Amino acid sequence: MKSPRRTTLCLMFIVIYSSKAALNWNYESTIHPLSLHEHEPAGEEALRQKRAVATKSPTAEEYTVNIEISFENASFLDPIKAYLNSLSFPIHGNNTDQITDILSINVTTVCRPAGNEIWCSCETGYGWPRERCLHNLICQERDVFLPGHHCSCLKELPPNGPFCLLQEDVTLNMRVRLNVGFQEDLMNTSSALYRSYKTDLETAFRKGYGILPGFKGVTVTGFKSGSVVVTYEVKTTPPSLELIHKANEQVVQSLNQTYKMDYNSFQAVTINESNFFVTPEIIFEGDTVSLVCEKEVLSSNVSWRYEEQQLEIQNSSRFSIYTALFNNMTSVSKLTIHNITPGDAGEYVCKLILDIFEYECKKKIDVMPIQILANEEMKVMCDNNPVSLNCCSQGNVNWSKVEWKQEGKINIPGDNSSHKSEVHEVLRHVMEMSTVQSTTRNSLETSKAQEQQANLTITPDPISVSEGQNFSIKCISDVSNYDEVYWNTSAGIKIYQRFYTTRRYLDGAESVLTVKTSTREWNGTYHCIFRYKNSYSIATKDVIVHPLPLKLNIMVDPLEATVSCSGSHHIKCCIEEDGDYKVTFHTGSSSLPAAKEVNKKQVCYKHNFNASSVSWCSKTVDVCCHFTNAANNSVWSPSMKLNLVPGENITCQDPVIGVGEPGKVIQKLCRFSNVPSSPESPIGGTITYKCVGSQWEEKRNDCISAPINSLLQMAKALIKSPSQDEMLPTYLKDLSISIDKAEHEISSSPGSLGAIINILDLLSTVPTQVNSEMMTHVLSTVNVILGKPVLNTWKVLQQQWTNQSSQLLHSVERFSQALQSGDSPPLSFSQTNVQMSSMVIKSSHPETYQQRFVFPYFDLWGNVVIDKSYLENLQSDSSIVTMAFPTLQAILAQDIQENNFAESLVMTTTVSHNTTMPFRISMTFKNNSPSGGETKCVFWNFRLANNTGGWDSSGCYVEEGDGDNVTCICDHLTSFSILMSPDSPDPSSLLGILLDIISYVGVGFSILSLAACLVVEAVVWKSVTKNRTSYMRHTCIVNIAASLLVANTWFIVVAAIQDNRYILCKTACVAATFFIHFFYLSVFFWMLTLGLMLFYRLVFILHETSRSTQKAIAFCLGYGCPLAISVITLGATQPREVYTRKNVCWLNWEDTKALLAFAIPALIIVVVNITITIVVITKILRPSIGDKPCKQEKSSLFQISKSIGVLTPLLGLTWGFGLTTVFPGTNLVFHIIFAILNVFQGLFILLFGCLWDLKVQEALLNKFSLSRWSSQHSKSTSLGSSTPVFSMSSPISRRFNNLFGKTGTYNVSTPEATSSSLENSSSASSLLN
Prior knowledge:
Layout: E1 9-19, E2 34-36, E3 48-51, E4 61-71, H1 77-86, E5 91-92, E6 100-114, E7 117-122, E8 126-127, H2 130-135, E9 153-155, E10 165-166, E11 170-178, H3 192-209, E12 217-225, E13 228-236, H4 241-254, E14 267-271, E15 275-279, E16 283-284, E17 289-295, E18 302-306, E19 311-313, E20 319-326, E21 330-337, E22 346-354, E23 357-365, E24 367-368, E25 372-374, E26 387-388, E27 391-393, E28 424-432, E29 435-443, E30 456-458, E31 463-466, E32 471-477, E33 484-489, E34 500-504, E35 509-515, E36 524-532, E37 535-546, E38 555-557, E39 560-564, E40 568-575, E41 582-587, E42 590-593, E43 595-599, E44 602-610, E45 620-628, E46 634-636, E47 640-645, E48 652-654, E49 658-660, E50 665-669, E51 684-692, E52 695-704, H5 706-718, H6 724-741, H7 743-746, H8 750-763, H9 772-785, H10 791-800, H11 804-817, E53 829-830, E54 835-840, E55 849-855, E56 860-866, H12 868-871, E57 879-885, H13 888-896, E58 906-911, E59 921-926, E60 934-941, H14 944-947, E61 950-952, E62 956-961, E63 965-970, E64 975-981, H15 990-1024, H16 1028-1056, ...
Parallel strand pairs: 2-4, 14-23, 16-24, 31-37, 39-47
Antiparallel strand pairs: 1-4, 1-6, 3-4, 5-6, 6-7, 7-9, 8-10, 11-13, 11-14, 12-13, 15-17, 17-21, 18-19, 18-22, 20-21, 22-23, 25-27, 26-29, 28-29, 30-32, 32-35, 33-36, 34-35, 36-37, 38-40, 40-44, 41-42, 41-45, 43-44, 45-46, 45-47, 48-49, 50-51, 51-52, 53-54, 54-57, 55-56, 56-59, 57-58, 58-64, ...
């Protein structure tokens, strides 16, 4: 045969033929391969004889010949099979001398390359002989044949045969449970009910098991009580376990649902087909007896039962069970009974379980009692002479060992101070035939007290729960002295320690097993075991866990949907495993029926929701599924939100996504979306769609690929498993291999990346100890997800989830703290994106801990040093672990939007045992982004920002830095790095604290000033709003003050929801940002309204508008425009969660430039108001003919122009400096100026917008009856007609007059005007009054 390395494919087929020729063939098999190449369709054919019957008789004999064909093109296989199947047998030979007929040709064995191996598998109906399965490697990844029978796949073809043989028929004795009530008629084979059950069940069985190769038939043999247990026989060739399960699924689907067949109750039971040995054959009382059970089944799930008392046998002082696997094919379990008694006689059952197959062996043993007679009491003289002690047994027994033991005390009469009253007797025996001589001597050693056996009391009530519910078992011991307490399953698997607690009391102890979320894995018997030295006390408790889906495992579709008021929508709830559940849909108080649909492993319950069933339209309806199991426990699914809208509003339609109105954003589970998926390997995660125009557009894809989603579901199940610590090493290995294969997929899938981080976070909470191999698998996984190709995916992921990088870092730290190297060398790991070194403290005088990490690809390096004086305080066998990450700091900076990070390593150092003694660690970082700013040594504090994490410099300081290198000293351990602060103040620095104080005090002072402004306006309102211009001016001032007051109040709210510049409440931050944006814009738009009103009054004199119209326009401009801008900004950015900055409650700049929605309107308004001020002042000083506003109007207009001229530049400058602080690298001067200007903002509005107004001053004086000031003020007012408008005592007035060259008097208007002027003036007077 050709070498397997060279052939693409080879197959063996068996030829059976008869011949009347006298053949004389050698019995030894010979091999002559037939090779087929692409250009050689035929070649030499030869025979290999498996068994030859040599005879000289001319009568017809039958021969079976194995023929092997090897060919390089795999496409030849199917045509050859098809050709052989098309042949008609027998094929008659055409040789007249030797008549040979070919009776049949069947393909038996096919060998294919599998990686670096050759896998040879048997065709349907054939199997490898048992000796081949014992001595060759089996393809365990796929070879799951019926236990105890031939295997189906070997690694490599046996060189000398035999090959796959025809399988013989087997009869499977099976049973299954129906969850219906048992009726006595089922015991009567002639009853109608019995015949009905038998007919229906056999029909379903034939449909299901008909898929098995070589299926012959199935017969129902009877029914038993216990619900209804159906026993039946299946005749077939040995099938694989996979086919058995598929057949069972087909049976359940084929059977009428009223029978309520429990899929999980299928069992195949075999009795007394295993080898059972008892040693010795004749058992006497006191013997040590061994019962050995052997079965050609590869399973360690073996249990022993004592039938007389229906007692499950567990390891104890008298009983010990040992189970082992031999030759990769046979399970051997040995029960040893020490010091057997007649009470132990009876029937013992050994039960082995593999999947649904149960193998029971029974053996009854008899114990012969023994009576021993001995001298009762002897008085011995202590004269050093030997003493003979005699004992006799009834019956002729060949004793192999005789042992003497002391009982009670040795009484030594008299008073001898050199001896104690109680001594320990040491016996030396010499055995000769049937006589035993014993000599004694006395010793002054203290005697050993007898060990007291603990009596255990366990929770008496039966425990029956459903999946998802909690339960606890309390085990109480009456003895407080013990070495170990643990819990076991009935299979001997230790329960993980996190599930139980143990307490010791003066007179006893207790252990409580607590399971918060039960799953089906918790179904079974649990043993509470108290061990003291070699003595075991055991108590057992049965736990029944009824199937019920967990809420998190119920998948609903849709999550949210739009439904036309006259239409309908299909809703469904799906689970992964079928069960006996009653499912209904509920909306409000209404209950809706559910139709069941099974698709492979996925089971869905559906309902077509009709919107017309709701009393009114334009409302939101919440719908939930309600699952109820056989134990009458129930669970609700997550709710589905159905938005009912009029049909004319719907523009987007899709058969999978559904319908929606423009702008509608919905989420769907990826497995129910347009993303390709299969029921066998479903994808996970969600996908977001938005209705744009008439089409649904994909807005965000957080789907999780099928392999990674499968790993995520397994991780969620693992952390709830009772044997999670045993399952973890294998899972971490599989995770590492799968992630390495899926690297390209992860780099383009944020959902898959997030799932991997969640997996590591879940698993890091499991282990109490991690070995080197497990840690290697963890770091291999981390190396992939921290690679440069994945960095862009991190950025997309962190737009949705802000703490993923912190979560990953925390997970890796937990794994490193659990690392235990044991006797193996300290682990060292080096990959492109992560390196790790460790050291184990072995003595009280350890060496200094020094590690160096170099990443040539990133041009980064770092050193870690811990002096040996600090290591002496650590416990012996403590592990110190340091990991270095070259890309993690950039990811962490994205997470908190830090722009001042240096390009350096993140180095994490942990110790396996916590230390409370003083500690000091020195680290040197290579810094690839040096600048003139301040360098800070920081660590990642997981408690900051509402426990989402952030950089913190507490306990760390810079020892030295020479530009490229920075040395940090810290007094604690965790993850460290360095930050650069170019020019912005550090919040913890003196300047940063001073700026915070100025800001908060200034805002408070501003709020008081604005409140005072509103109070003054309220007091003088009637006195100062007598004309239209004054009314509108004061309306604007009041709204400016009110808007700024509310905005500053929200600024105080922001201070309360931020902790060290980290947001504590995301929702509150979004709300605060919205209102600050809205009210600050309102300040500017009301100032724009003030300016436009001034421009209108002086430029459009002949055009009059009513006060109500002006108010409507002013309020629309002052609040309507800011509201529109704020809402549009929020709607455009918040769905992507980029409305605010991640560490500040203010408009985002880095991702969306949302800050421009404030900056652009504000700057435009500042420019417009300054322009209006210049135009208005020029117009007042140089009026055109006919422009004669009355004196009151002129005074008001001038006061407005003063206010705008002062306030607008002030506000504009304030926010001009504020905008500069947004950008990185801003000089500290701008931060200081912005803080100081903010302090006086409210004060300037009070002074220049309110108190500077002479009418306000006069009204205040009149209000508070200050007659002297009032009379003086009246005199000065009476001169108004003969003095210039700007002839006031105010220095600013004089400057304005000098600026425009005006001295002396200038009358703007007089009563003696032209007729047109008089008409206009009287009209104006009437309006102003």
